[in-house]
């Protein structure tokens, strides 16, 4: 084959592409440096606030320089950074740790504790922050995500006392009777969603559950369900966070002394057994074998206080039709049938 003729404009096009790539890389690098500089400036201001030094041990060196610079408007770290190179390096490192988080959620969670140090002013926390640094698009996204209601609640759960119920005593969804006694009317959300959120909050209060996704995993729930529920309920709370946490602490004190993971295991075993169902079925005339899945789900929701999406009756989350058929089964049960079903798996023949 003969050699392919080179288009006369290819060298020029290649140069333009290289120049464009170089320009884009330079612009991206400039944005990263600007984000780093602006966030570092903000952290320097926040480190000087009460509670800031607990987040940044390096901030102890700021005290003397702040005192020397403080006039009526305070130090202007963005225009004139600290003179100590080591202190500047540690502040830059703290900012870089936030900016290099894998996701926006992770970055917001990392910045969240800093947000709690912002003083109360007439302009609000967002106004105070904007007056002390340049709000780049990246920094704005992080701050707004950290400022979301479920982020604020996350920080309060991390520091609130009285929510340390053992994980084994936490069901996936708090019992209805406890919801009615302690949480009814606190949220403009469906009661079942609030019951799930309460369990997530109690799990989130444990040190090993640093995120809503981790709290959901600790309750043997899908991570995405935990994140979605936290966002939904945090946006519909009708009382102060302090009031909600006080109610939640009282609920935690009266949780049944039961091993819910162990109960879940027993009910899961019932999926491959029909003996317990056959012994229970005669108390409900005309019960078909197909109701085995609904009876097992009833135990999952009312005995283990599990979430319907994790019911062992189905190999995957139930469809809308399956959930509707289950609700028909549930509403058809008499008090006696419920009492018998509650103990069916544990009744010896």
Helix/strand/pairing category: mainly alpha
* Total number of distinct structural domains: 3
Count, helices: 18
Taking the sheet with the most strands, its summary is: none
Percent helix:
55-70%
Stretches where pLDDT is under 50 for at least 5 consecutive residues are 1-10
Radius of gyration: 28 Å
Strands, count = 0
- Taken as a percent bin, the fraction of beta residues is under 5%
Along the chain, the helix and strand elements come as HHHHHHHHHHHHHHHHHH
> What is the overall silhouette?
elongated
Query: In whole angstroms, how far apart are the ends?
Result: 86 Å
Oligomer: single chain
Mean pLDDT: 83
Supply database-style keywords.
349 residues; mainly alpha
How does this structure look, described?
The protein is mainly α and 349 residues long. The protein folds into three domains: 34-54 and 88-147, no CATH class; 161-253; 260-346, no CATH class. Helices cover 59% and strands 0% of the residues. The chain has helices at residues 10-47, 52-55, 62-69, 85-99, 104-115, 124-130, 137-147, 149-159, 176-182, 191-204, 212-218, 223-234, 241-253, 260-269, 275-280, 292-302, 320-332, 335-342. The radius of gyration is 28 Å and the shape is elongated. It starts with 9 loop residues before the first helix and ends in a 7-residue tail after the last helix.
Summarize the SSE layout with pairings:
Elements (H helix, E strand, L loop, with lengths): L9 H38 L4 H4 L6 H8 L15 H15 L4 H12 L8 H7 L6 H11 L1 H11 L16 H7 L8 H14 L7 H7 L4 H12 L6 H13 L6 H10 L5 H6 L11 H11 L17 H13 L2 H8 L7
Helix pairs in contact: 1-4, 5-7, 9-13, 10-11, 10-12, 11-12, 16-17
């Amino acid at each position: 084959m003969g050699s392919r003729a080179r288009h006369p404009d290819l060298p020029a096009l290649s140069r333009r592409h290289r120049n464009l790539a170089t320009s884009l890389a330079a612009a991206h690098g400039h944005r990263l440096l600007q984000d780093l500089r602006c966030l570092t400036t903000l952290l320097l201001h926040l480190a000087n606030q009460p509670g800031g030094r607990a987040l940044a041990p390096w901030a102890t060196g700021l005290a003397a320089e702040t005192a020397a610079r403080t006039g009526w408007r305070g130090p202007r770290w963005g225009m004139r950074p600290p003179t100590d190179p080591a202190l500047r390096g540690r502040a830059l490192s703290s900012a870089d740790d936030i900016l290099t988080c894998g996701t926006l959620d992770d970055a917001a969670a990392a910045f969240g504790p800093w947000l709690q140090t912002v003083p109360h002013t007439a302009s609000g926390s967002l106004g105070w922050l904007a007056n002390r640094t340049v709000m780049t698009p990246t920094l704005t996204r992080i701050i707004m995500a950290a400022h979301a209601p479920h982020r604020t609640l996350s920080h309060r759960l991390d520091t609130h006392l009285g929510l340390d119920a053992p994980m084994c005593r936490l069901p996936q969804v708090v019992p209805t009777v406890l919801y009615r006694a302690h949480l009814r009317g606190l949220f403009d959300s469906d009661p079942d969603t609030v019951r799930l959120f309460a369990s997530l909050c109690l799990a989130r209060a444990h040190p090993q559950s640093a995120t809503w996704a981790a709290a959901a995993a600790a309750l043997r729930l899908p991570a995405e369900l935990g994140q979605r529920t936290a966002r939904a309920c945090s946006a519909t709370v009708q009382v102060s966070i302090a009031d909600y946490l006080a109610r939640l602490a009282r609920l935690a004190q009266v949780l049944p002394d039961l091993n819910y993971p162990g109960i879940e295991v027993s009910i899961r075993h019932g999926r491959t057994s029909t003996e317990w169902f056959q012994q229970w079925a005669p108390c409900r005339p005309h019960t078909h074998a197909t109701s085995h899945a609904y009876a097992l789900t009833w135990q999952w929701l009312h005995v283990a206080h599990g979430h319907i999406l994790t019911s062992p009756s189905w190999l995957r989350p139930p469809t809308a039709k399956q959930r509707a058929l289950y609700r028909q089964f549930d509403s058809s049960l008499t008090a006696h049938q419920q009492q018998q079903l509650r103990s069916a798996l544990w009744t010896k023949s």
